[in-house]
Amino acid sequence: MLHFEVLAFIKIIRDSFISAEVVYTQGSCYQFYRILKDRFPLAVAYYNSDHVITRIADSYYDITGEVNCENHLEMDEHYPESMVKECRYSILQLNNKPQR
After folding, report:
1. What confidence tens digit (pLDDT) does each residue in 5-20 have?
2. Burial of 51 (0-12, 13-18, 19+ CB in 10 A)
């Protein structure tokens, strides 16, 4: 089932380093969406001007697992300028990989 596959993947990322929750809830939530989007191509970013969450199928996720979608709107429709926002932590930049 897709939901459990998503949760298992999130757990791998969360357990990969001690500060994963801090990094992906305090500055790099959009980067976390991009990781999920790479693994789950139908993922869609939702934003409430504070935090990005990811919709995959009928559920919403962030680094903590499944979350409620409260006051979040689809980013590409309502916040297109934020799709390129600067992040405090950038995994892609840390790995010296070009951003897509």
Report:
1. 999 999 999 999 999 9
2. middle
Q: What is the pLDDT of residue 100?
A: 41
Distance CA 35, CA 58 (A): 18
Residue 69 in 3-state DSSP? coil
What's the rounded Cα separation, in Å, for the pair 72 and 78? 10
Task: Return the domain boundaries, the chain.
Answer: 2-94
Tokens of 47: 């934003």
Q: Are 19 and 39 in contact (CB under 8 A)?
A: no
The answer to whether residues 66 and 50 touch, using CB atoms and an 8 Å cutoff, is no
This prediction has a pTM of: 0.80
